[in-house]
Amino acid sequence: SFRENYEYAETLGVISIVGLSFSLLGLVVTIIHHLRENFQKKPRKQQTKLNSKVSLLCIYLSLLAFIITFLSGVQNSSPQNSTMEEPSNQNHIPASDRHVEPDRGSCTAVAALLHFFLLATFSWNSVYGTQLVLLVRSMHRSLPPYWTPLSLGVGWGVPAVVMAITLAATYRVENPLGYRQEEL
Predict the structure, then answer these.
(1) Which of 84, 121, 133, 134 is spaced 20 to 30 Å from 183 by Cα?
(2) Beta-carbon count within 10 A of 129 CB
């Protein structure tokens, strides 16, 4: 529905910030615990266990980076100032929807980082799940020697390529809203 003075519910913003802050705190504690327990100088364990721990750490780090990027960059520091037209009985596109604010770069950068970190989180979860399936199904309970470089390429590389291709295909300086959305 179209309303001239639409504003988000303030309580929704507070709940989001509080919830993401708890998630941020939980991820930091989890990463610290994971590093202390798994990467202390202990006798060298199997490479498979190290691969599993690296995959989990990458999941945690991509989620942490996403939340930090979201909390620091989600606020639109320079919203568009436009005059809204009065709704009439005819269907038409308001002038504010046709107005394109020039790109200052920061909003597009935040959108690209959020896109990358969400894809990376999904990719690392897929890598970790595939790793578990391979370990359960294999008789030797070990991963192939090329698994670490492959998992790093899939976990970080594929999201970077997808984000870059999407950004290149949809972003234009004269029309930045092809890649991101500007909330009025």
Answers:
(1) 121
(2) 11
Q: pLDDT tens for residues 115-128?
A: 999 999 999 999 99
Give yes or no for residue 41 having a pLDDT over 80.
no
**Do residues 75 and 17 make contact, with C-beta atoms less than 8 angstroms apart?**
no
pLDDT higher than threshold 90 for residue 77: no
Nearest-angstrom CA–CA distance, 146 and 134: 13
Q: Which residue has the tokens 């020697």?
A: 145
> How far is residue 150's CA from residue 111's CA, in Å, rounded to a whole number?
27
Cα 141-142-145 angle, rounded to 5 deg = 165
pLDDT band at 83 (very low <50, low <70, confident <90, very high): very low
Q: Check residue 170 and give its pLDDT.
A: 84
Query: Per-residue DSSP letters for the chain?
Result: ---TT----HHHHHHHHHHHHHHHHHHHHHHHHHHHHHSSS-S---HHHHHHHHHHHHHHHHHHHHHHHHHHH-S-SS----PPPPP-SS----HHHH--PPP-SHHHHHHHHHHHHHHHHHHHHHHHHHHHHHHHH-SS----TTHHHHHHIIIIIHHHHHHHHHHHHH-BTTBGGGTS----
